[in-house]
Amino acid sequence: MKTGSVLLVEDDISCRTLLSLELRSAGYDVDSAPGGREALRLLETKPYDWLVTDGRMAEIDGVALSRIAKKIRPTLGIAMVSAVYGERDVTDAPVDKLFPKPVVVDDILRWLRGEFPSQEPAPCR
């Protein structure tokens, strides 16, 4: 099973807690942050394999965070989870995968395992 380190950025504490627990139970090393500022601090301290971020957040949104994160960690895989942003909104951002909210945790796990080609849309429920 492919595992690694994930930085999860989500301002909703319930979503952050649930996703963290699910990713950990699947074998991933997960750190989480409630927003972009904390995420950037964490990115400076640890070589994460993936960033899974909310789209709309206060201070630094997911698009801006993905751009800065890619400069810090050029090999970082980036997924965005958003109820607001669509494919057109992230065209110029280094986002590898966009998942609509409400997110299906199994879809994120499939992406982390490399089972979704970047251009294939995630199935929604």
Architecture overview:
The chain has helices spanning 13-25, 36-43, 62-72, 105-112; strands at 5-9, 29-33, 50-54, 77-82, 97-100. The protein is of the alpha/beta class and 125 residues long. It has one domain: Response regulator (Rossmann fold). Strands 2-1-3-4-5 form a 5-stranded parallel β-sheet, with helices on both faces. Helix 2 packs parallel to helix 3. The radius of gyration is 13 Å and the shape is globular. The protein starts with a strand and ends in a 13-residue tail after the last helix.
Summarize the SSE layout with pairings:
Elements lengths: L4 E5 L3 H13 L3 E5 L2 H8 L6 E5 L7 H11 L4 E6 L14 E4 L4 H8 L13
Parallel strand pairs: 1-2, 1-3, 3-4, 4-5
Structural class: alpha/beta
Strand order of the largest sheet: 2-1-3-4-5
Number of helices: 4
Kindly report the CATH topology.
Rossmann fold
The chain-level mean pLDDT equals: 88
Using the alpha-carbon principal axes, give the shape. Answer: globular
Beta content: 15-25%
- Let me know the CATH homologous superfamily: Response regulator
Residues in helix, %: 25-40%
Strand/helix succession = EHEHEHEEH
Given this structure, which CATH class is correct?
A: Alpha Beta
Alpha-carbon distance between the termini? Answer: 25 Å
Major sheet size, sense and barrel closure: 5 strands, parallel
Key features?
125 residues, alpha/beta, Rossmann fold, 5-stranded parallel beta sheet, 32% helix
Short summary:
With 125 residues, this protein is an alpha/beta fold. Helix content is 32%, strand content 20%.
